[in-house]
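Quarterly update from the structural biology core.
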Amino acid sequence: MKILFALSTLIFALHAQSAEMTVQEHMSIHTSNARPSVQLQAKQEMHRIHKVDEKQLADLVQKETGEEITSKKLTHRGRILYYDVRTANYRLEVNALDGAFLKKEKK
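Predicted structure, tokenized:
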């Protein structure tokens, strides 16, 4: 029984980790310059880095909640690049590099 518990804990810990951007990728999108052209370049860089596209995101959200996406925004926190997704009844954060769900809140 102890082995089964340890194995399940290990599997959960490995699954709970999500992919992160490299330091270089993070620095390429993290700028303190507020000029609109620089901010646009940072957004374009985020879209270049992400691995989960909008269709895959819609499929993941549909499987998880059974609902369609009403709004989505690609953003980052630290080295985590994620989609902030809204549906009719949920607010989700989905890792844009590996598709892992970081947060799921019912409205």
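The radius of gyration is 16 Å.
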